[in-house]
Amino acid sequence: MASQATPRYTVPGLTVENASTLIELLQLRLHALNDLHLTLKHVHWNVVGPHFIAVHEMLDPQVDRVRDMADDVAERLAALGGVAHGTPGTLVEERSWKDYSVERADAIAHLGALDVVYTGLIEDVRAAVGTSGDLDPATEDLLIEQLRDLEQFQWFVRAHLETAGGTLSTADATTETGAAEKASKA
Predict the structure, then answer these.
(1) Are 45 and 105 in contact (CB under 8 A)?
(2) For residue 105, is it left (φ>0), alpha (ψ between -120 and 50) or beta?
(3) ∠ CA 29-159-62, rounded to 5°
(4) What single DSSP character describes residue 15?
(5) For residues 33 and 10, is the Cβ–Cβ distance under 8 A?
(6) Number of Cβ within a 10 Å radius of residue 23
(7) 156: buried, middle or exposed (CB in 10 Å: 19+, 13-18, 0-12)?
(8) Counting CB atoms within 10 angstroms of each CB, which of 69, 156, 158, 163 has the fewest?
(9) Where would I find the Ferritin/DPS domain in this sequence (predicted)?
(10) This model's pTM is above 0.90
(11) pLDDT tens across 8-43, in order?
């Protein structure tokens, strides 16, 4: 973690130790949201095919909300006494996931890949909600609100990948490229 020293102060009613734990947790959430923002713009710019305009226009509100989420996380992190590290170099150095790998592709392929991206992100946010809930209800509340929005965004993505019978074309895909391939073939 980039120079994550224990804060010298934090919000009233929270120990500096617990604030330090939350700061580390929020820093990873900030990296994930900044990465998601850029990934969504990448898809927005590189989507092609008959579903182009639907996907292109669906992503801009998601981008805007994800940017707002990142800002909220950074501000909460600072309020707890931490330093919000938002530079690209720090993000790349500290993230635990690989870069989005689908380039110019059909809309359905990108949506398949985004489904996997959202799944990983949502799982991480759920874990962060669990950790923060034991320490700080304000941070927990922030993350729960973001979780609801991220789950809705994944639902929007999955609506394009689901059959009328309720089967998800990306079911069992574990990588974004695998999901993109499965979605394209469906």
Answers:
(1) no
(2) beta
(3) 35
(4) -
(5) no
(6) 24
(7) middle
(8) 163
(9) 23-163
(10) yes
(11) 999 999 999 999 999 999 999 999 999 999 999 999
